[in-house]
Amino acid sequence: MRNENSDIEIIDAVLNGSQKAYGDLVKRHQKYVFTLALRFTRSREDAEEVSQDVFIKVYRSLGAYQKSGKFTTWLYTIVYHTSMTHLRKKRVDTRSIDDEATFIQIENHQSDRDNYSVENKSRSFYVNKAIQMLLPDDATIITLFYQGEQSLEEIAKVMNMEANTIKVKLHRARHRLKEKLEILLKGEVKELI
Amino acid sequence: MDIEQKIWDYIDGLCSLKEQEEIALLIKNNPTYKNKYEELMALQLDLQALDLDEPSMAFTNKVMDKITLINKPLSAKALIDKRIIYGLGSIFGILILACLVIVLSQVNWNIPLNTPSSFKVDLSVIGDDFNISSSTKTFLMYSFFMFDTILGLMILDKYFRKKLA
Predict the structure, then answer these.
(1) CA–CA separation, A53 and A31 (whole Å)
(2) b/e sequence A63-93, b meaning 16+ C-beta within 10 Å
(3) Do A26 and B48 touch (CB under 8 A)?
(4) In this complex, is the C-beta atom of B73 within 8 Å of any C-beta atom belonging to chain A?
(5) Min Cα–Cα distance to chain B from A66, Å
(6) pLDDT at A166 over 70
(7) Are A15 and A62 in contact, with CB atoms under 8 Å apart?
(8) Does the pLDDT at position A164 exceed 80?
(9) How far apart are CA A154 and CA A74, in angstroms?
(10) Is the ipTM here above 0.95?
(11) Per-residue pLDDT at A111
(12) Could you give phi then psi for residue A150, rounded to 5 degrees?
């Protein structure tokens, strides 16, 4: 339990009319929401737009939140669905969102991070870059598991899948991530030689 | 199950105590397992050390500005008009009372006290004395079905609420 007010206490305050309390909730979760949205949108501007939509949706439907479940699981479910909707709207062709080529193409158009100098490139830079190269579902599972601290069952709820499916998907996602990371690191070594 | 999957399960703490001991032993004695474990642990540490991305400095203010234009959220309890709940409750209460009155008025209270221990229902009472008009029967039948439908809807509602929670 955190020292500061728990999510539930803040939600109760918001439902009792304190709009200011909602600001605390936004501040507390904005990084997670933004990171998750970024896994889908691959652009900071779009991720920020999606994150804003998420927090507005959350505010509107806060009364419907069942306090029996973890707030973050409910919040990430909204992030997941809002991001998916955004992605569908953004797509100009009819290709499946699971089409890896689509994302490799998008990836080539970004990002600010790619402009780092070689000296500044830490291992976490490459891990982040490798995550960006994954399919959105793979990147989401990894983000929820490691950064969102969600269990397999909670991720299953967020993505509306079976926990066993998530377990298999997590395994595959890490395997793909490892492959991408190896490719990136090999490329970097060659660049240095 | 391949080695990698086994070791990931071990790292994530998803295997049984027995499997955990077996894999720990394999990591200790088998170089293939040991190398794989070290490789996966390195990735695990990298993933755990990842920082979260930050939105712009004005993010919270932007959200709060938009929220001021929206009506304040209400809890689900506050959204439900209590008069509707009391109204429904009274209807069902009256229906239950009416059923009870009808049933009690049809009971044959003259069954002797020295009746054998096994409980017997005098079905002939229904045939001869339970005389109600066909329209009342239809009304009762429809009421019964309506009651069942409402019960069914309530169960469905409870099921979906649990699923969504």
Answers:
(1) 14
(2) bebeeeeebbbbbbbbbbebbbebbeeeeee
(3) no
(4) yes
(5) 6
(6) yes
(7) yes
(8) yes
(9) 9
(10) no
(11) 46
(12) -100, 145
DSSP H helices in B49-81? 59-67, 76-79
Contact A48 B164 (CB under 8 A): no
Name the 3-class secondary structure at B136: helix
Contact (Cβ atoms closer than 8 angstroms) between residue A18 and residue A32: no
> Residue holding tokens 């045939």?
B127
Q: Do A124 and B49 make contact, defined as CB atoms within 8 angstroms?
A: yes
- On the question of pLDDT at A80 being above 70, the answer is yes
Q: Which residue has the higher pLDDT, B158 or A3?
A: B158
- Contact residues, chain B, for A31 at CB < 8 Å: 52-55
Closest among A55, A59, A61, A78 to A19, alpha carbons compared: A59
- DSSP state for residue B73 in the 8-state scheme: P
Q: What is the pTM of this model?
A: 0.65
- pLDDT tens per residue across span A95-143: 545 555 445 444 444 444 444 444 446 788 888 889 989 998 899 999 9
Do A37 and A54 meet the contact criterion of CB atoms below 8 Å apart? yes
For chain A, where are the alpha helices, taking DSSP H only?
Answer: 7-15, 19-41, 44-60, 71-90, 100-108, 123-132, 136-142, 152-159, 163-192
Residue A111 vs residues A28, A114, A183: alpha-carbon distances, Å: 26, 5, 18
Q: Is residue B162 a contact partner of residue B139, using CB atoms and an 8 Å limit? A: no
Q: Which residues contact A129 (CB under 8 A, 6 or more apart)?
A: A113, A114, A184
Under an 8 A CB cutoff, do A34 and B54 touch?
A: yes
For the segment B126-139, what is each residue's pLDDT rounded down to a tens digit? Answer: 555 556 667 777 77
Q: Is B58 exposed, middle or buried (0-12, 13-18, 19+ CB in 10 A)?
A: exposed
Residues of chain B with pLDDT under 70: 1, 74-80, 111-133, 163-165
- pLDDT bin (cut points 50, 70, 90) of residue A73 is very high
Interface test with A, best of B45, B53, B158, B163 (most A CBs within 10 A): B53
Identity at A19, one-letter amino acid code = Q
Task: Name the token pair of B52.
Answer: 């979260």
